[in-house]
Structures are given as structure tokens and as C-alpha cells.
């Protein structure tokens, strides 16, 4: 690393330049590899959703078991992210990146070839495990590869666009593969994508030695946080099927929150914590974590319930359903990449606030949907506005969440971002599904007669619009809280963080 000499004759590290960065010449190619890896992880959260009915018919599992195809992935992925991030710092980002890709591809191949429900769920859990190794390594590699503030803003804008649009891309790809090939290809497709990313990593990422001052892993903290997150996410998943008052739901959520509180106590006392608390308590990073959590909740409302509406109410095919989200993808990419220069100059505070308020407006538009609404007049405007808002808020949040973190903790800071995003999605899954079910049930019970097919359609739409109103509220609350927490002005990038892929 370059050094400067002070007036006292002491040599201190200065901002790393291109000569200090072994990846400077290939940084944009590396961004392509990282973005592809992130796309694999993000699209897998939704690509299987469209394939689920076909897979259920082929393998013969029940409706009660169906949710575990999604929940198994979420449980493993969300609970192991912090451990995966710390392993990335200890073992090496390059090593964890490649290991995660290879393992994810292998699990996808097994899932695609599954002949029964148990193998398919096991493969989805394995995908979550290796995704927890891959995601933090990818983000931390991006953090240490781009050290120039302007270039960093552009790189994170692209990364944020992929993260925000990946779910919608998964719907399109899942619809096309299910309709023209087989539901199995919704899993097989990860294999060639991962192979390309592994080859790119082998060619572009340089292996370096781990710093001597990096210590071991916090075993007590790791065990407690994994148990806490598994319990919490499992409780949320149970709420959808068993109800909020069920013993399983209450015990698991309560135990999860208690264990997470114990985890915070452990981290405040151990000498080498899994998650140094200063990473979370920093106002800028804390606000960034909340942004991705709020966006995770709101995006769930769009991806799941708008998918239900266009497929079940409007009768769209799987492929047409996927392509109906294209305007939102374009909106996300437009603002995520187009606002990079603005965010570099003024910081994330204003863009995040404006973005989340735009997303809230989009939700309000969706809340006006009726049984006979049309795509062009009633859905398209909301998709565009929501996409613009999501892109404007999530890209600066990803960048700010890892700014100012020393290289030793880049992996765990990156894992924290992904953890908050995953927990946000899990909360959205449970809470919004419960609201939708309750609204639909109340509508039908209020009829005072046996519901007709038309009544059932009206009740379903009432459930969807109820969710969109709640999602609008989530975005407004998120805009106010996060806007207040973010400091005004650009976010400083730590100039002394060594650039390591190890």
C-alpha cells in the first residue's frame, strides 16, 4: 500500500491507488463476474415460485409441504449469512466465492434431478447453505475491488440494480423455462451460470495470503445467531400456515428474538466477535441495513401478490406473467445506474427517501386494482414508479452499508446487508400473507351466503389490495426512519482498507 510521511517523520498509509490494487486493470470484468454470481443467488428466491405448481404435480407433494421448497432455502440462507461472511474474512473471499458457486451449482443439479419431495427440499437447503457462503463473498469482493469513490458508486449502482431486479428476472426466466422446457430447468439453469462465474473468478481474481492479524471465528456467537435466526424465520414461516396465535409460531419467534438478544450480549463481550457491534450501530450502515430490510418486505408484496393477481385473476400464462414485470426491471436499472453520480456527490440520504416514497406511491396504485382492471391502465404505471423507487433506494444502500469498513470486516459487513434483506423478505412473506388471508376470509364471511366463483375472485383481489396498502405504509415508514438516520452528504470510503481478494 502507498505511504505518506508526516511532519514528524512517521510513515502512515495513504489512499490506495491503482498500483496498490491488484485488480485495478480488470475491475470492470470482475464486476461482471460478481454481478452474475449475485444474480444467481437473487433470482433463485423467485424462479422456483412459478415452477412450484408443476413440480408439485410431478412429485406429488401436498400444499402444506409446498411452502418448504421456499422456506428451506430461506432458512439456510438467512441463518448462515453472518457465519459465511466471517469465513470469507478468515479463509478468503476468493476461496469462499468459488466454493459457494461450485456448491450452489451442485445443489441445483441435484434439485433438478430430484425424484421425490425430500430430495428437492434437501437440495434447496443446500442451495441456501452455499448461497450464504457466496453472497457475502461477492459483496465484499466488490467492496475491496473498487476504492475510487466515483467508480465505486457506479459499481454498486450496477450491483444494486441486479439485486433489485433479480427477483423479477427470476419470474421471467422461471416462466419461460417452465412453459417451454420443464420445471427442472429452473434449477438446472444455475449450473451453466455458475460455471461461467467460476471460470471468470479463476482468471480474474488473484489469490493472496490472509493477513496475520486476522483471528479465529467466534464459535459461541456463531451457534447462537444461527439458532436464533433459524428459530425466528421458522416461526414466521409457521405463521402463514398455523396462524399467529399457534404455539409453534409464538414459541419459535419468541425464542428466536431471545437468542438474538443473547447474541448481542456475547458480541459485546468477546474479544473477536462474529459481528462487531460498531458495524451495526454506525448510523449510516444501520440506516442502510434498514433500507434493504424495508425494501425486502415491500418487494415481496409486488413479486408474490401481483404475480397472483396477473396469473390467477387476469389469467396470464407463466411466461406472460414473468414478462409483465419487465417495466419494473427497466425502472430499477434506470435509477440504480443513472443515479450513481448523484449519490457520489450528495450521498444516500435524499435518493433513499425519494426512492422509498416513490415505491410507496407505486403500492398505492396497485391498491386500486379490481377484478376487471387492465394491465396497461392499472398495472403498468405502478410497475414503472415502483421500479424507479426501488432502484433509487437500494443501490446507494448497498454502497453505504459497506463504506468505511476495514478489510478485516468487509465480509461480515457484507453478510449483514444480505441478512437484513433476507429477514425483511421473510417478515414480508409471513406478515403480508397473513394480512391477505385475513382480508379474504373477512370478505367471504361478510357475504352472509355461499360465495360464488365471482365472489371468490373479488375476495382474492381484496386480499391483494390489502397487502399493497400495508406495503405502501412500510415504504413510507422506511422512508421517514431511514431518511432521518442517514447523515447528509457523501459517504466516505475508508482510504486505508487494504485491497485483498485472498
Feature tags:
single chain; 502 residues; mainly alpha; Growth Hormone, Chain: A; 2 domains; two-stranded antiparallel sheet; 1% strand; disordered N terminus; disordered C terminus
Describe the structure.
This protein has 502 residues and is an all-alpha fold. Helix content is 76%, strand content 1%. Helix 1 crosses helix 6 (149-180), helix 2 packs parallel to helix 6 (149-180) and helix 4 (93-112) runs antiparallel to helix 8 (190-204). It starts with a strand and ends in a 17-residue tail after the last helix. The model is unreliable at 1-17 and 495-502 (pLDDT under 50).
Task: Give me the secondary-structure topology.
Layout: E1 3-5, E2 11-13, H1 27-43, H2 47-59, H3 63-91, H4 93-112, H5 117-145, H6 149-180, H7 185-188, H8 190-204, H9 219-242, H10 247-269, H11 277-281, H12 283-313, H13 318-323, H14 326-338, H15 340-346, H16 349-366, H17 375-402, H18 410-445, H19 453-485
Antiparallel strand pairs: 1-2
Membrane topology: Multi-pass membrane protein
Organism: Aeromicrobium endophyticum
Keywords: Cell membrane, Membrane, Transmembrane, Transmembrane helix, Transport
Write a brief caption for the model.
It is found in: Cell membrane. This is MFS transporter. The chain is mainly alpha-helical and 502 residues long.
Q: Structural class of the helices, strands and pairings?
A: mainly alpha
CATH class of the largest domain: Mainly Alpha
Could you give a short account of the major beta sheet? 2 strands, antiparallel
Shape label: globular
Gyration radius (Cα, Å) is: 22 Å
- By DSSP, the count of extended strands is 2
In the sheet with the most strands, the strands line up as: 1-2
Uncertain segments: 1-17, 495-502
> Could you spell the SSE succession in H and E letters?
EEHHHHHHHHHHHHHHHHHHH
Distance between the termini: 16 Å
| CATH-defined topology of the largest domain | Growth Hormone, Chain: A
Quick check: average pLDDT? 80
Number of domains: 2
- Can you give the helix content as a percent range? over 70%
CATH superfamily of the largest domain: MFS general substrate transporter like domains
Architecture (CATH level 2) name of the largest domain = Up-down Bundle
The number of helical runs is 19
Strand content: under 5%
